[in-house]
Design brief:
Number of helices: 24
Shape: elongated
CATH class of one domain: Mainly Alpha
Order of helices and strands: HHHHHHHHHHHHHHHHHHHHHHHH
Largest sheet: none
CATH topology of one domain: Serine Threonine Protein Phosphatase 5, Tetratricopeptide repeat
Mean pLDDT: 81
CATH superfamily of one domain: Tetratricopeptide repeat domain
Distance between the termini: 62 Å
């Protein structure tokens, strides 16, 4: 026989996580303008919340001028809230509600702040925070706001305002169903039976689009059925119980309720039908265990004492077997078997931390505590336990990096010592003074050219060659001047010389400007060289100090990691104790319940034996000696 169902667990935990989920990036389309915000969102959507927080904190320290600072802080505060870091989240949200932020960011900050204050029990403050919200929340988030406001009014016992708030829902939202359910249960308990049952009946007839809504509908019908039972309306109670799914997580309680509804109407044979169906189901379920007593009790009502005795004996045997199983379960929990089962197989995979939100852990204790696994208190303890395990893993990984950093530092120091003589002895470092002298000579020449208008000093090599050639021709013409007529040749010489001189003179200004530009470039190059030289000399002198600084930082981080590891280990030990205590408390309660059932079964068994014995004595024929 299958003792428990994964689908039952999934329905329970899915409905729970819908309520526990943090308000983070709630729009389908998110505009990413900053790399750090995009990386954080990428990690968030993969359920890597620790990595997302780490990315946002690094961005806060190294890139404070990010283009999406408000979005970064809003996401960081929401993640803090999901981790239960309420003080850190509170500080962030109180900054973001400032008037300088955009209405989009401000509304989400007010909403997160309201959720935080509600968790802290600051009901009035949460109500005031919700009143600051304007109209930028998306439809689903606004529905969650109305659900939160409904719960606040229920806490403040303002039931009429809660009814008004429920009427403000628009469209179709699961939050409206949750609000109506909570309000219906509360009103029924407060004696406003008609209003409460009406709301529960509405939720009990919804057409569920998701498994969590199907579970909510079953829960509403179950609550409605028991409300009718308290009102002494067993027929209506039976109708509500029958709307619960036959194979849902609450079906066993519904079958038990149907049986009692028939029993109250003295329809004993009909009452046996759902209770006998329960006998085919997991014997670990409290409803099944109670039916083991209800069946023989009803058989007594229909005058079947022998059959009742058989079933009381069967129940007593079962209770004894289960008590022995519970003792073994208690021993397993105390020996850490449950904790080992809850430990993720791969701590390096951050996404594996939430694995038990989708399936049951493999443990012999699970059949006895699977309903506890879906409870809010246990889920919070489990999340803390697995987060601490992951944090312990991360600290250990960071600690293993430190020897590598030390080795890198040693190699850098050794390379520095080897390179220092070579660098400091480099002859190129001594050329700056010579280059500076040559530059000064060049600057003086430029000044002379400008003062003397020495255009030929700016002539090109080709032009100088041409001038030399013309001067050589002039000398030959001077030699021939007394011997022959050279007037025509002198005229040509003067023409060519004038052309060359004119070309040099017409280009004098741009050539002078170009020379000054090159001089400025040379000055900049010399300045850069001097700066590089100064920087290099500073690096030579500061390198040993920096090496020591890095060494002390590595040592300091090593000490810090060791302290954090000890703190994490202490917190982990405490969290393990909490998980074991919750599991043991659940098993102890089952043990006490079974012992109570066993006492009732033994008492009924003894009573029937006594009654049947007396009846047998009374039915014996009188002996002859007893005749008068």
């Amino acid at each position: 026989m299958r003792l428990f169902s994964n689908s039952i667990f999934l329905n329970l935990v899915t409905a729970l996580l819908l309520v526990m989920s943090p308000v983070l990036a709630d729009e389908k389309e998110v505009v990413v303008k900053d790399l750090s915000y995009g990386v954080a969102l990428y990690n968030f959507y993969q359920d890597k919340y620790f990595s997302a927080i780490n990315e946002l904190l690094v961005a806060r320290e190294t890139r404070p001028g990010t283009r999406q600072l408000d979005d970064n802080e809003l996401l960081l505060g929401s993640l803090y809230l999901s981790y239960g870091l309420q003080q850190e989240a509170d500080r962030i949200f109180k900054v973001l509600v400032d008037e300088k932020t955009s209405p989009y960011t401000r509304d989400r900050a007010w909403f997160n702040l309201a959720k935080l204050q509600y968790q802290l029990g600051l009901i009035h403050d949460a109500s005031l925070a919700l009143q600051h919200i304007q109209d930028t929340l998306p439809e689903n988030r606004d529905a969650e706001r109305l659900n939160l406001l409904t719960n606040i009014y229920l806490q403040e016992q303002q039931y009429d305002k809660a009814l008004e708030t429920v009427s403000e829902f628009r469209g179709s939202s699961a939050w409206e169903d949750y609000a109506e359910f909570n309000l219906g249960v509360t009103l029924a308990k407060q004696g406003r039976i008609e209003e409460g049952t009406s709301l529960l009946d509405t939720v009990g007839k919804i057409d569920p689009a998701t498994p969590e809504l199907a579970a909510l509908r079953d829960k509403a019908n179950l609550a409605l059925g028991f409300a009718f039972m308290r009102m002494d309306q067993p027929q209506q109670a039976g109708d509500a119980f029958r709307r619960v799914r036959l194979n849902g997580p609450l079906s066993n309680k519904a079958l038990l309720g149907i049986g009692w509804a028939w029993n109250v109407q003295q329809q004993y044979k009909q009452a046996l039908v759902p209770w006998l169906e329960l006998q085919t189901r997991s014997p670990l379920d409290p409803a099944v265990q109670e039916s083991l007593l209800a069946i023989p009790y009803t058989m007594e009502k229909i005058d079947k004492p022998k059959l009742a005795l058989v079933n009381y004996t069967k129940a007593n045997k079962y209770y004894e077997e289960q008590l022995q199983e519970l003792e073994r379960t208690i021993t397993a929990i105390q020996n850490g078997e449950l904790l080992r089962a809850l430990r993720p197989s791969n701590l390096g995979d951050e996404t594996a931390l939430s694995i038990y939100h989708s399936k049951l852990p493999k443990s012999i204790t699970v059949p006895y505590i699977y309903t506890l696994l879906a409870s809010e208190q246990f889920q919070l303890a489990l999340n803390n336990y697995q987060d601490l395990l992951y944090l312990q893993y991360v600290l250990g990984r960071w600690g293993r990096y430190l020897p590598a950093f030390n080795l890198m530092l040693q190699e850098r120091r050794r390379a520095y010592q080897q390179k220092l003589p070579e660098v400091t002895g480099d002859v190129r470092l001594k050329q700056l003074q010579r280059l500076q002298r040559e530059r000064d000579q060049l600057a003086a020449e430029v000044t002379r050219i400008e003062e003397q208008q020495d255009m030929l000093a700016l002539a090109t090599d080709e032009e100088l060659d041409t001038i030399d050639l013309l001067q050589s021709i002039k000398q030959r013409l001077d030699t021939l001047s007394g011997k022959t007529d050279t007037s025509e040749e002198l005229a040509k010489y003067r023409l060519f010389y004038g052309i060359v001189y004119w070309e040099i003179g017409s280009d004098y200004v741009p050539r002078t400007w170009q020379l000054k530009k090159q001089l400025k470039e040379l000055d900049q190059a010399l300045a850069d060289a001097r700066a590089a030289n100064t920087s290099l000399q500073a690096a030579w002198s500061k390198a040993p100090v920096r090496f020591e600084g890095f060494s002390s930082r590595i040592k300091g981080q090593d000490n810090r990691i060791n302290r954090l590891q000890q703190q994490v280990q202490n917190a982990l030990n405490e969290q393990q104790h909490i998980i074991q205590s919750l599991a043991l408390q659940e098993v102890y309660q089952q043990r006490e319940r079974l012992k109570a059932y066993q006492v009732r079964a033994k008492f009924a068994q003894a009573r029937l034996y006594d009654t049947m014995s007396k009846n047998m004595e009374a039915s014996k024929p009188e002996s002859k000696t007893d005749r008068p």
